[in-house]
Amino acid sequence: MATEAAPMDEKAKRMRDLLSSFYTPDPSISTPTSSISTSFDNINGPSFDADQYMDLMIKKSNLDVLLQRHVQMAAEIKNLDTDLQMLVYENYNKFISATDTIKRMKSNIFGMEGNMDQLLHKIMSVQSRSDGVNTSLFEKREHIEKLHRTRNLLRKVQFIYDLPARLQKCIKSEAYGDAVRFYTGAMPILKVYGDTSFKDCRRASEEAIETIIKNLQTKLFSDSESIQARAEAAVLLKQLDVPVDSLKDKLLEKLEQSLDGLQINPDEASKLAEHNVSSKDEESNNQGPAKIHEDAVRGFSEAMRAYREIFPDSEERLFKLARALTTTHFENMELYIRKRVSAADFLGIFREYSAFPPADVLLLSNSLRIIWEDVVLMDEVLPEAALSDLSAEAAQVTLKQFVARTFSHLQQDISDTLLKFDINQKEVVDGEVLKVVLEASGKAEFRQLLDENTGIFVKMNDLLIGWIQKGFQDFFSEKIHAGLILVLAQLSVVIEQKVIPRIAEEITASFSGGNSQAFIPGELCRVFHAASEKLLQHYIDTRTQKISNVLRKRFKTPNWVKHKEPREVHMYVDMLLQQLEEVGKEVKQILPQGTFRKHKRSDSNGSNTTTSSRSTTLHSDKMARSNSQRARSQLFETHLAKLFKQKVEIFTKVEFTQESVVTTTVKLCLKSLQEYVRLQTFNRSGFQQIQLDIQFLKAPLKETVEDEAAIDFLLDEVIVAASERCLDATPLEPPILDKLIQAKLAKSKEHNNNNKTTVSS
Amino acid sequence: MQGGSSGIGYGLKYQARCISDVKADTDHTSFLTGTLSLKEENEVHLLRLSSGGSELVCEGLFSHPNEIWDLASCPFDQRIFSTVFSTGESFGAAIWQIPEPYGQSNSSTLDCVASLDAHVGKINCVLWCPSGKSDKLISMDEQNLVLWSLDSSKKSAEVVSKESAGMRHSLSGGAWNPHDVNSVAATSESSIQFWDLRTMKNVNSIERAHVRNVDYNTKREHILVTADDESGIHIWDLRKAKAPVQELPGHTHWTWAVRCNPEYEELILSVGTDSAVNLWFASASSEKQASERSAEASRQRVNPLLNSYTDYEDSVYGLAWSSREPWFFASLSYDGRVLN
């Protein structure tokens, strides 16, 4: 093949095409590749034209390239030839091995048919033999089956005949469950053959069953039996086709009756409690009715549970019952509250009243707690009845009523006391009453209400507080009495400081989950704090307004320019002190004492004291010298003194302490005094009068007030203002001043041997 | 005083109570103050804010024969002003003219234009008609209200009408309604009285005890601001005089004076005897924004007090907004310090 050189190219190409068409099973793959690479210089392409290729080569390349190309092509052709030879040999080998295999198969097939025939014959004989065996055993088997059936029938007959006796035995041993099972088993047979052969038997068994039913019914109705036993009895009765519904109705009726009995209980309890309150040993006796009540309710809930288990389909009726119970409970409560409040109304004497609210609240909270416990019990039994919601609602209403009533009552009470106060002018009594009312109404009420940390209270605490606040506002608009305002201020402080944290605590205790969004203690705290501050401010305002009126009258009326020689301390000082004393008393009774104690300032040598002493020395210096000095230099001196004195903070924030409130009031009054003085023009006597009054004021004011420096400063300011506004500022001689003050003191001692502290000026 | 807490200060030699904005001076921001000293020679200071707004310059210093309790600048002639003065025992009121080339000589004397001498009791204040060109004046003493007609060229003032408010009401001060030249509000012991100047009759009153000072809102009709001794600042709508439209807490002691800003209706300035000057923001009470009011009111409650200037060491009595530059105000404390 490779020997011929000239047509070698074409030959090789044909060969290759053939080979490629043979080896590539899918020509569609080979054709696109060849078509894609269609070009003249692609030797492997199907559209290769050797002549054209040659022409192209000759035209394009020089001799060297052509030679090189020639050599390369010759090598390629040689390679292809060897490849072809290899392929031919391999194909031949495969063909030879295939013929060998066919030859071997032919020899193996011989003799197979005979074996098959033999096998068929053997199977046929096996089949005929098994048929023979089957026919020979058939008769015996039939006989056995018959015998078995007879035996079963006999057994059944025996059972039915035994049934009465067995039932009796069951009755004796109270195995009603077995008895019912037996009876229901025998029922179909008895029904079919009962009229003929088993007549006696049937009658006897029915009798037995009747006794069983009777027994079961008694069992069902007897409360002494356990719930399970009763439930079983009910189930058995149902199996015996006894009309259970009528039974159920009967039972429920009975339950209702017992409920009626239960409702009487709270009434009795409240009556009892009322009685006990008036005999003033409520606590021990309160427990009695409560316990009775609790037992009753517990029994009720037990019964409920039992019925629920016995008659699972009768829930609705039970719901109704439970709801009725709670509503009647709350109705009772309302009635009871009304009674309580009106009862308290009749007792006009406030001292006795003061004992009442706690008892009242105690009772209320007790009964509320009881009800809540009941509800919880019942709720366990009947979770679907939504009793807790119902009762929460009802309790809300009740509490609302209660708070409203208490408030109206409180209001009335306070107005009563105020009336009395007006008549008697007994300040001490009034103050005590204020305190009592505060304690009674405030602490007792709120604390006790909130002490009851059952969930129901937690739910409605914020509501409660809302009402209370509203109550305050209503209250506030109607009554304007300074003491009252103070009480309210203190009350809100109490709420803020003690009640709210407690509520918050309880909320976190009872709802560890995220259920407490409705109640924001911080917010409430803020509200109450603001309210209390406002109230306090208002208190001070009203007080200072009063005093300011006194001062205004004092300064507007006389002609200061034509004032006469001062003979004694003016009346208004007394009035001023009296007012301040009043404030002090009120404050003392209501507000807590501050940390600043009065005796402290006597031994303290802080900056306060030094400034005050400096100012006083300056002042007395000035007093001593000013006899001889002219007014101008004096004025200059006061300015100088002012320069060196540190600026005293007059208007500080008011705190909830006795001292702070009194101090603020005094400061404001003195400032007003100063302003009034500045508006007037004085002659010498007028100035001396002012000087005398102020000098007299100094000692008692210092007694009452905590911030001595500020008071000193303000008193000095008044004198300075007076001297500035004076045409001829010549102060009184200290001895005369002393004398006049002593005279005044003696006079006031004479007038009322009160415990006014002696002054040494 | 633009937002900052430390203003421009100016010290008077003596105590003083009153300061007034010179409305007629359109070229400068000027104020007039008068001192209050029993024994010394009293002075009237003409203060001018320097062009840079950084300094308060004394442009004129004039001696005044008696201590000055009230001072008001004439709205149409910057050289004319009125004073209420006291000699210690008796009161008088007069209208003065600043002599022509003022500022050169210290303690030059003032020309007395007219003396308002129809009063017997304690004179409280003199009010200029706010309409500008009118030459009407009102002076008030404790019992009487006198309407004057001023003729500055003839240097005379004539009593036009006079009406007694009665012994029971001791008048203490007042304000002329800028929206209605015939209406004047006067404060008395127990109420605010509104007088009609044509008939000289008391036409209306708001029951309110111890009102110290009153001012009309120049931008909004019917709105009146009062300052009380005890209960702070109240904003009234004259058509609904039963209850105040809004209350502001005022000062820790008496609120002495209150003024509405001439340009920005929401701004109210008050001074008190607690040595503080408070700037309030009270945007409510415009009738057309009735629906907005609730929302706004809640916002106001958050902070109606915009700023409190507490640079003083003594009670602040005097207060005046600048009418030329509404963001300036002057306040005056008893110890004679003026701050802008």
Automatic annotation (TrEMBL), chain A:
Cellular location of this protein? Golgi apparatus, trans-Golgi network
Q: Which family does it belong to?
A: Belongs to the VPS51 family.
Pfam families, sorted: Sec5 (PF15469), VPS51_Exo84_N (PF08700)
Q: What role does it play?
A: Acts as component of the GARP complex that is involved in retrograde transport from early and late endosomes to the trans-Golgi network (TGN).
Indicate the segments forming the Exocyst complex component EXOC2/Sec5 N-terminal domain, all copies: 479-593
Record text on subunit structure and interactions: Component of the Golgi-associated retrograde protein (GARP) complex.
Question: By what name is this protein known?
Answer: Vacuolar protein sorting-associated protein 51 homolog
The record lists the organism as Brassica campestris
Q: What are its GO biological-process terms? A: endocytic recycling; Golgi organization; Golgi vesicle transport; lipid transport; lysosomal transport; protein transport; retrograde transport, endosome to Golgi
UniProtKB/TrEMBL annotation, chain B:
| Cited Gene3D superfamilies | YVTN repeat-like/Quinoprotein amine dehydrogenase
Q: Is Repeat one of the keywords?
A: yes
GO BP terms, alphabetized: protein ubiquitination
InterPro entries given in the database record: Beta-prop_EIPR1-like, EIPR1, WD40/YVTN_repeat-like_dom_sf, WD40_repeat_dom_sf, WD40_rpt
This protein's UniProt keywords: Repeat, WD repeat
Superkingdom in the source lineage: Eukaryota
Q: Which residues form the EIPR1-like beta-propeller domain?
A: 5-280
Q: Does the keyword Transmembrane apply?
A: no
Q: What is this protein identified as? A: EIPR1-like beta-propeller domain-containing protein
